[in-house]
Amino acid sequence: MTLLGTGTSMGVPMIGCDCAVCTSTDPRNTRTRTGVLVETVNGAFLIDTPPELREQLVQARIKMIEAVLFTHAHADHIMGLDDLRIFGFKSKEAVPLHCEEIVEKTLRRSFSYAFDEELAKTWHSKPKLRFDRIGLEPFDLCGLKVQPLRLIHGRLPVLGFRINDVAFCTDVSEIPPETWPLLNGLKYLVIDAIRHESHPTHFNVEQALEVIEKVRPEFAYLTHISHSLDHETTNSQLPENVELAYDGLRIPLS
Which residues does 119 contact at the CB level (< 8 Å), separation at least 6? Predict the structure, then answer.
């Protein structure tokens, strides 16, 4: 699992900001919007399609994507969808989009040229995409078992995903009771921690550490990070088994 992007919806550096993190020369303080690449012997798939997806995949030297999972349909998690066109052209088949019904409805509206048959008649280079509706039941993808995890993002139900002994939980401010048992026995937990101050729709660092203390993974990474958290300074304040994530971080899937 590669964390392609680890930043908030505005990214880091933020437009027009001259703070110490936004002007930092530490490459770990440069954070594109949140997205994940999972590579297996049977192919590769994505979690979310952030706005910088093309740049992220070029940087990772990815040649083919077999499918996409979506956590939710906020702009910073979907606006790179058109960058999937190249994979449909290469394979001559539609790229499967695994998502909940509410996400499908938003994608159909936001990218109507890709899904509206009438518009498609006049649109050149239409992406080849298809929807595969998912719920909370586990399913197989590229030879891996994927377990969806119900999370709450403010008041919005969203999904995290557990793959083997790694759980990816971005954009979360509450974990429902039914999800906690699915987080048992983790080697790695990737969890939302936007800043030190409280936030209405995201865990802050203190809340994320409380989740980590309860789940007790072997190691945890904090993601969806704002410009208020300097990488080196924040890491020096965290427990030994917890670190800020950074773009390009690779996590083994046992």
Answer: 112, 113
Q: What is the CATH number of the domain that holds 44?
A: 3.60.15.10
Per-residue pLDDT tens for 56-114?
999 999 999 999 999 999 999 999 999 999 999 999 999 999 999 999 999 999 999 89
Count of residues for the chain? 254
What secondary structure does DSSP assign to 204-241, as a single string?
A: -HHHHHHHHHHH--SEEEEESB-TT--HHHHHTTS-TT
Contact 21, 227 (CB under 8 A): yes
User: Domain of 221?
Assistant: 2-250
Three-state secondary structure call for residue 39: strand
> Cα 27 to the chain's mean position, in Å?
20
Instruction: Answer yes or no: are the C-beta atoms of 79 and 49 closer than 8 Å.
Output: yes
29 pLDDT more than 90 = yes
CB-count burial class (<10 Å; 0-12, 13-18, 19+) for 20: exposed
Structure confidence at residue 53 as a pLDDT band (50, 70, 90):
very high
Closest alpha carbon to 49 in 75, 86, 31: 75
Six-digit token pair at 88?
A: 């449909």
pLDDT beyond 80 at 166: yes
Residue 152 pLDDT exceeds 70: yes
Residue where the block lists tokens 């980590």: 212
Q: What is residue 71's DSSP assignment?
A: S
Rg over alpha carbons for the chain, rounded to the nearest Å, is 18
| Total domains, the chain | 1
The closest of 192, 187, 253, 250 to 219, measured between CA atoms, is 187
Q: What is the overall mean pLDDT for the chain? A: 96
